[in-house]
């Protein structure tokens, strides 16, 4: 409200409060409107409360989704929850080799802890053929017209390259690499040995089945050096006394969950008899459970779990300053969710297959007085040493076993993580989940309050206009009476 020399502006309108009556009619109007606006203040407070509550429930939903995803990442179930996941989700292993010049080793969650003796008799290699030495790589070799090289590689279509009077090592190289039948299966290059240049023709893949043969036409006789040929060959290894051949130097199918990367041949191997391991020096590989990595996964889960419990607890108390309960105080939804979080993790799990562990405390995951969980690495390590599969079953259940608690008998037995993920799914599910429905309810209430506030504000605007008209009429009437009184005094 702004004050002018002749009047004031009220609600954006020019008025003349108190000019005739001496009353502060503008203040009277504001006082009356303030009384009538009390319901509006209550609605605005309700709107603020609804928005704050919705935001807090959205935070809870986000945190529970994060918790569910953490549980899902440890339950060893596939995306449909109906079968085991392809990749192990909980277990981690450390792999080491006593001679990394011979082989490196890595392990996934499907590995079995233990020690294994390995010897490498031969590395897999690609097949190569070489030309005889030439004085230049970019000048014509002096062959006649209409000659050719035919390359047979691993059962693919032959590569036939024309060689003419102007052909050089470089042009033959390019013709091989760019041939329509090649497709990257054969790679040609030029090697300089310090004196001469040699055309090298090599297969792209290792293994005896990928050998390569180059046939010259009659006019090229002697161009390819048969003595320099190196045939493609398989790798040959011995594992725990068994001799094994594979087409490559990365071997993933000999020990479950273990990848062997071959780097060199073991000492004591005769290159002419690569399958004779009688004098070979053995390389020991060790596969051990990585307790630290598994503990880190469980600690990440514990952090999110504790944050979810804290979010509910911190918003469920009574504020002595405002004398009001926090947003979740007395709310059955939040209370039930909190109960679910606590009871799911403390229950005992039984399985059709006999197992060493039935509760989290037995594998080092325990509750404190605040309802927080923590991981004891020593207890976890002892449990993993005692029975790794039992730890895995307690957390992820057995997706291949019939669940005695499931009426259909096909859901698989639940572990801690599967049970938690299952109970959180209908709470956090979009669309018809508990918290999604709650969010829709907040939207409806907020929309309703905003509509009521808009309507009430329009009502107050109308009421303000009516009061201004009434007090303006009063001022006009009093001014008229004063004018008559002044006139009578003058004529009297």
Write out key terms for the chains shown.
4 domains; 492 residues; disordered N terminus; alpha+beta; three-stranded antiparallel β-sheet
Q: What does this protein structure show overall?
A:
The chain is of the alpha+beta class and 492 residues long. It folds into 4 domains: 2-36 and 437-491, no CATH class; 48-87 and 291-428, no CATH class; 93-124 and 234-289, no CATH class; 128-228, Sandwich (Immunoglobulin-like), CATH 2.60.40. The chain is built from 9 helices and 21 strands. The strands form 7 sheets. A 5-stranded antiparallel β-sheet has the order 4-17-6-13-14, with no helix packed on it. The protein has a 3-stranded antiparallel β-sheet with strand order 1-2-3, with no helix packed on it. Strands 5-16-15 form a 3-stranded antiparallel β-sheet, with no helix packed on it. A hairpin with a 4-residue loop joins strand 18 (318-319) and strand 19 (324-325). Helix 2 (38-72) packs antiparallel against helix 4 and helix 2 packs antiparallel against helix 8 (416-428). The longest helix is centred in the C-terminal third of the chain and has 58 residues, at 434-491.
